[in-house]
Amino acid sequence: MQREEFDNLIRTLLSPSNEERKTAEQAFEQLCSAPEQAAPLLCQTLAQCPDEAVRSLTAVMVRKRITSKFFKELSPGTQAAVKQSLLQAVQNEQVGAVRRKVADTTGEIAAMIMEDGDWPEIMPFIFEAAKSPTATLRESSMLIFSRLTFVASEKMVSSIPTLKQLCGEVLQDPEKEVKLAALNATACMVQALSSFEQHVATLTDMIPLMVQVLTEALNAQDEEAARTAIEEFISVAEEAPKFFRKHLDPMTQMSIQIVTATNL
Description:
By secondary structure, the chain is an all-alpha fold. The radius of gyration is 20 Å and the shape is globular. The N and C termini lie far apart (about 50 Å).
């Protein structure tokens, strides 16, 4: 099957016709029973198809279909091609909603691979993307990293100072969406390391930077951003409550600001 034909197959999965959609689903399932054939087509369509709706659905399909079992059935060359295609798609996607799906998918696939394997290129990519002059790529780096934290927590221990610096820098990004992604990544890292109490303690001086993201959203009366930030703090408080113990003053001030914010 050629890529253009596969594009049309994915497009038909979006058809309002039940009959057409059912036929396409059967064809798709049959194709996915041959991972070595399906994987390149999925990744090529994700990275190259000009149809936004097709790329968006393909991002979801890649996330669902490239399981650990599926990936292990691929040849080493195809595994490498899948990784390369995902990183290419993250860099090239121009549509915000699709790009976030692609970044989430890449993070999920990377986490799956790193559970019992390795993807040596993924962390250098995250660090490079975090320093990109392109805000969307900086945001994508944090979205990918947040998906890796829980799987790679033990591997992260030796790199905590470097990861702390990375998140600390991106938390101060001038772009709101990038800062929110960095807040999510930082919150995920703290939660993932919650069982390593002595290491979590070294991250507590990031709290003022985390609080600043919420404070800026409140000052800007950006309800959606503020709610997103508050949810991150709640998640950390539930999983790693001791994290905030030494920074009660900024947390108290933040709580007062939340309570007195009339727009929330």
